[in-house]
Amino acid sequence: MANTHEYWMRQAIELARASKIAGNDPFGALLVKDGEVVMTATNQIHTATDPTHHPEIVLVRDYCRQEGITDLKDVTLYTSCEPCVMCSGAMVWSNLGRLVYSVSHEQLLGITASNIQLSSGDVFLNSPWKPEVIPLVCNEEGLRLFS
């Protein structure tokens, strides 16, 4: 069924799969506003040789620039994995309305070597703006990206 968290998350997971096929880490994300996808992005750390080219921060930056706005209260960001500290910070600065993710930070730490031990929850807990967070949507499908 269209317009459910599972529907949108499966699209984010497909973007992550495309990222992996292109030689990047398996992360993908999309922005939804008023029941429509307004922008998508994939991880391009390796292909763009840019360690900050995470899909979540690309979406926040590019969508705000495209729309001439800095406030994303009416937008939901769907991402294949819980965002890192950098991306979570961008979500706070842009007043993101809702974050929906598949694989948690803790699950990712159990699968890969990460040099950052803070989760998006840690960032939001210590920030004045806290988006609504819906975790672990299509979790098993998201975890399969790392196998």
Automatic annotation (TrEMBL):
Protein name, entry field: CMP/dCMP deaminase zinc-binding protein
CDD domains recorded: nucleoside_deaminase
A single GO molecular function term of this UniProt record: guanosine deaminase activity
Domain of life of the source: Bacteria
PROSITE patterns to which the protein is assigned, alphabetical: CYT_DCMP_DEAMINASES_2
GO terms for biological process, alphabetical: purine nucleoside catabolic process
Coiled-coil annotated residue ranges, if any: none
Pfam families (UniProt xref): dCMP_cyt_deam_1
InterPro entries: CMP_dCMP_dom (IPR002125), Cytidine_deaminase-like (IPR016193)
CMP/dCMP-type deaminase domain boundaries: 3-112
Signal peptide interval: none
